Amino acid sequence: MPHSSDSSDSSSFSQSPPPSKQDSSDDMRKVQRREKNRIAAQKSRLRQTQKADTLHLESEDLERQNAALRREIKQLTEEMKHFTSMLSSHEPLCSILTSPPPPPEVLYATHTFHQPHISSPRFQH
């Protein structure tokens, strides 16, 4: 569509005042503020990405630890089954379990300690 030359269009251009020093200063502040905001947003996105990466690495590490602990649980469970089986097969043959307990004096033999060099009445018999 061709551009028509209206008198209202041309008058609007001629009526607008030339940019003042104040306007250009405001424009500069806007540009600086936008640039500062752009940099801040960029830094924020970078921090967010780094945090996500750190969480991902931590998650992978925890998954490895979890797998290792599950393997250890499995191994210990198998070991417990083995020892339980050994105990079950040993119990009927065990002489300690089938005989009466020995008298306490056999278990705890009386010992006399002779200490002639101690002269205190507390240590004498």
Automatic annotation (TrEMBL):
Domain (BZIP) ranges: 27-90
Biased composition (Basic and acidic residues): 53-63
Gene Ontology MF terms in the entry: DNA-binding transcription factor activity, RNA polymerase II-specific; RNA polymerase II cis-regulatory region sequence-specific DNA binding
Keyword Repressor attributed: yes
Gene Ontology cellular component list: cytoplasm; nucleus
Sequence segments annotated as region (Disordered): 1-63
Ranges of Low complexity composition bias in the record: 1-15
Keywords: Activator, Cytoplasm, Differentiation, DNA-binding, Nucleus, Repressor, Transcription, Transcription regulation
Nucleotide-binding found in the keyword field: no
Localisation: Cytoplasm
Similarity remark: Belongs to the bZIP family.
The name this protein goes by in its record: Basic leucine zipper transcriptional factor ATF-like
